[in-house]
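## Example pair
The file below holds two records. Each record gives the amino-acid sequence first, followed by its structure token line.
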Amino acid sequence: MAVIETHNLERTYQDGNQVIRAVDGIDLQIQEGEFTAIVGPSGSGKTTLLNLIGGLDKPTSGEVIIAGTPIHELSDNAMIDFRLKHIGFVFQAYNLIPVLTAAENVEFIMLLQKKSKEERRQRSHQLLEAVGLGDRLTKRPGELSGGQQQRVFIARSLAQQADLYLMDEPFVGVDAATEESILKLLTEMRQEGKTVIIVHHDLQTAYEYFDWIVLLNTRLVAAGPKDDVFTSNLLQEAYGGRLTVLSRIGVLIAKKDFPLRESDFKEKEGQGDG
């Protein structure tokens, strides 16, 4: 069953006299229980697509359907209720509540869901322990590093126990051991039938951990099982002129030895963010 469908999804922005197409004509289906990575070069519309799927932005044209509901037809209040019941977010624009402790920040979403005090306490402690913050339960955001705050974001999102999780670069600022712990948690959630979609810049771990890949460059280049999408031709199509690196990827692709992060492309070419 397709839990997410997009039909001719487009988002444009006006920049002076120029129309910028952030995403262009995306037709996509993601099945229930898929563990999906959205990958592509900088400026390819990955975060915009995630925002549209989550109802945080409205399309210029086209539609997003989640579990049979065309979400952009919902009123603002109905959309808030829908997100609370069905969608867990880890977005970099989301902030922790500064006056609450790490545990209280995680518990907050469960308070909105009217969970009991004991259930909130047990779940928050369990999740913070899982992301390596078991000794930071009583610390407020100002007492945590950026990476630690990111881990609280993730724990808070997982506490929601939603059907669908949308995550924009959730591993920024966390070490490899914590990333592995979080990916293990997400894998367990997938085994429970949860659907997880992550904007991810690490092609190597995208291949290692995800089953389904969405390859984007404003338009949809490919979506499907990782072995069908991670081919030299499709990567060339997505990354365009970045061929000095991609030619090497083409040779190494049989080994699945991809550059680790999108920054590898930019650093080798001397390019900034697009």
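Second record, same layout:
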Amino acid sequence: NSPDRCTYETNIISVSDCLQSSAQCQASRRIYPFNNVSEAALSPDGERLAFRGWGEARSADSPYAGCAPAHPYRNLGNATLDGTNFVSTGSFWEDSHPDWSPDGGRIIFDTKRANDSTARIRAIGVDGNNEENMLIAGEHPSWAMDSYTFVYRGCDLTGNRCGLWKGAAYDPLSWNRGQNMLGPIVEYDKVAHPDWSPTRDEIVYQRLVEDNWDLWAVNADGSNDHSLLSTANPEGLPSWSPDGNWVAYLSHDGQNWTLRIVSRDGSDDRLLYTYDGGLYTVPQPVEPYGQRDWIDEQISWGK
């Protein structure tokens, strides 16, 4: 997003161009046509973008009042990369963190639309129809290769054994709460933003270790849980490459916020993109955004 108070921009960059040079990276960079959208998720074919729309400023005294027109809808939606053919996928502004199923048919997301402020997992067709309530408390869901199983951050039904859990994406009956919770993968509560590999049963995620966020990876059955990348800087918001060989992530080196990529085995770490002016800012904690930080965002890597 931009340091300009009037914009909350989503940028689309070419990985190959950015690895060539910063000049080539900037030359091919595109700013998504919709203003005030965030939490981007590319479709499997790379043709559409799902996002969270924030709508117009909610009051005349908002610091965002008087800015350029924003995307008018305050909910989840998806559109082509040129901003056309918009489809609304819900009507609740609390819906967040969308993720496309590999078969391109559904979007899974978390939402705090209930009055208890608890995040829960739901899925909906990309056309905005057939919403399903997983009856699972959790957040940051990510589809598995089968477009049915998913990983998310959550706990058991008693609020214990928190960490990364596996779920099945179907709409259970109201008295079967927890029936489609398939069990824990990582039992450690300081984790976030899991992303299931598009090519194998492997999950990358961010883990808080001694007050610093690092990148970790684990097999979907919970085995081989290991550190992928650990530095003195925070690393997070991991996203697999389409071929499953690289992971993109956000980092801060003490001066600049950057996007970087690291190989699946952690042996090759490369700079991809430095935010304009080294800045990565989030909107002020007022309407329509509320209190946000970098960890509330997400990045996506598509074809």
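Notes on the second record: The first helix runs from residue 15 to 20. The two ends are 22 Å apart (CA to CA).
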